[in-house]
Amino acid sequence: MTDVAKASAKPSAPPLRKPAAEASAPVRWWHTQRGRERLFHLLFLLPALLYLVAFFGYPVVQNLLMGFQRYGIATFYTGEAPWAGWDNYAAVTSSAVFSRTMLNTALFTVCSILAQFGIGLAIALYFRRRFPLGGVLRALLLLPWLVPVIVSGTVWRWILDQDNGVLNRLLGGLGLGTPGWLTDTSLALLSVIMVNIWLGIPFNVVLLHSGLQEIPRELYEAAELDGATGRRAFRYVTWPLLRPVVTVVLVLGVVYTLKVLDLILGLTGGGPANASQTLATQSYHLSFRTFDFGQGAALGNILIAVSLVFALLYLRANRRAVDE
Amino acid sequence: MTRRRARWPATLALLAPLTLAGCGGNNGVPDDAGTLRVMDYYVDQPHKSIYDRTLKACGRRAGVAIEHESVPNASLIPKTLQQAASRTLPDLLMIDNPDVQQIAATGALHPIADQGLSARGYARSVVDAARHRGKVYALQPVANTIGLFYDKDALAEAGVKPPTTWDELKAAAKKLTSGDRYGMAFSAAATYEGTWQFLPFMWSNGGDERKLASPRNADALRLWADLVRDGSASRSVVNWGQTDVSDQFAAGKAAMMVNGPWQLPVLDEKKDLDYGVAGIPVPKAGDTSVVPLGGEAWALPRTGNAEREAKAAKVLRCLTSDANQLALAAKRQTVPTKTALMDPFAGKHPEMREFTELVRGSRARTGELGEDWPAAATKIYTALQTALAQGVDPRQALREAEND
């Protein structure tokens, strides 16, 4: 680009310009060679920038503003959203449900991620070996990912039904009792987490498996010569080389898990008695059930802030990985 | 140099479609007064085609074509808000009756009196639901409510009569519970459906939504808690919507249930199920049953086109005419909302007699609290959940919900 511009500009530019005009016109930065290049760079960036501003910047800024406004049903028609300062934040954080939702969100995210990652890594390691039907089985593992969440949510609701669900029929037949998976306040969150783990395993398996494929076989051969096999090969070869992928999987996992909404709505609707209510479901409830968009946005912003912390951690970890 | 200059417009021309693509959507608003846009949430048959035919017939009489759009229940309000913001509201808008006041409060609707319509002759609850600051904003052609459905064979087998009081209900439910069948089913879900099903018990006991932690509300909640605690009702009620309740009843897993007449077509498909409908049991013999008003009202949004607004009012007048009220009620298992039509209707449709009486004495959910109803409704179902799922004392559960 630079060379072509120089080559074409040099011979053709001087004869076309009248000397008088050149003298009178002030020289602006975009008239210089370097400035023109900068301008073109900017122009190439422009579509992406416009896209980001329109589809990411605007909604986020709007949501931040909404959190400080009394934004109700009437706002849509009148366009009036009086400034409310921190009132919305005060209202959502002082609500009795708030501490519960924070704790639920933390438990939901941490438990889901730990189990998804652990099981996902185990399966990925297992499938690294070649064996008959291995490819088919790996494809089948993707199934939970392919089914729409609202469908799997409904199916799980049947499975976990207290009286007629498959699981309780089985447990009851074995004489183990019939717990209220979705109706007992002490079990509902656990059930939701279990289903979410089931749902998240494919994501972990796929990313970790492809990460494992990237590790050159020769390294294991070399390690074997040095006496590192089995667990030690994992500790000194697999894990260090898989680390960048692990960071990506964990951080994306956290961000995806924090905002899980459809699954919980489908299974318990946040109940019973808010036992499985998370920041995401509560924010949805405030905005689209009670139509208090201001408070819903305030809670949503808290969720965004938490996600942002993890996104920054991800960026930092990534930079460190590059530096290394 | 000239060549490079010429690239400028080209670059901009390439960018233009990117920036303009977002604004290209045409919302298809006809500007002439020959077509009216109507929106409702009757996506299911037969309701969709019943309303479609009625609206189109009314349109012909008013001299306009009808563009009838049905969106799913859950998207009606979000879509309405979107349209309100972009000034593309339909000419005639269906709204679930407890939502009318909220929408009216935005200023997006015309009071029906502006177009020469009035709510005279309508049941009180229907007017209460549609009134905001003294003006009526919507008319409801037909109404429904909830009653007690019972499995006749199961009751005969257990030797119990349809219960009319709370004590009878508890005894009957207990007696009817056997094997994998529960005596009673209702919805105590963490949604407005849970609240709606609880209201007949709360109101018939003299309870009120203005003060939640009252002994009367607590007694009603205690009745539900007792039914769950002694195993007469499944613990899953906290997770059941009204359709789930009906499914349980139809499958023979519950001998009695609280539900509405919109389930009649589904239940009638089950040939081996012989069921009856009674009023919801009241606390003591002689108490009156107070049930919440159900059903949808039709409103006239401000569209800024006087000619179309006048025609929409004509269609609404036709939709709520005596003849259409009776026809819609008969076809949709609902009840006409003009009090003068109730007796003739019940005479002609004996299976709807019980519901007609219930609607006559019904109460509007937003009658007392208006726009503040959603907040109270949320508190009520939260208390239901706390008491039924967590086993918290009903009075305590209501107190916690009220203070939240």
Automatic annotation (TrEMBL), chain A:
The record's InterPro entries line, in alphabetical order, gives:
ABC_transporter_permease, MetI-like, MetI-like_sf
Q: Which domain of life is it from?
A: Bacteria
CDD domains documented for this protein = TM_PBP2 (cd06261)
Give the residue range of the signal peptide. none
Q: Which GO terms describe its cellular component?
A: plasma membrane
Q: What Pfam family is a match for this entry?
A: BPD_transp_1
Cellular compartment(s): Cell membrane
Q: What are the residue boundaries of the ABC transmembrane type-1 domain, all occurrences included?
A: 102-314
Topology within the bilayer: Multi-pass membrane protein
What Gene3D superfamilies is this protein classified in?
A: MetI-like
Write out the transmembrane intervals.
Answer: 39-61, 106-127, 139-159, 187-208, 241-258, 293-315
Q: Which GO terms describe its biological process?
A: transmembrane transport
User: What does the UniProt keyword field contain?
Assistant: Cell membrane, Membrane, Transmembrane, Transmembrane helix, Transport
Query: Family, per the entry?
Result: Belongs to the binding-protein-dependent transport system permease family.
Protein name, as recorded: Sugar ABC transporter permease
Q: State the organism of origin.
A: Streptomyces coryli
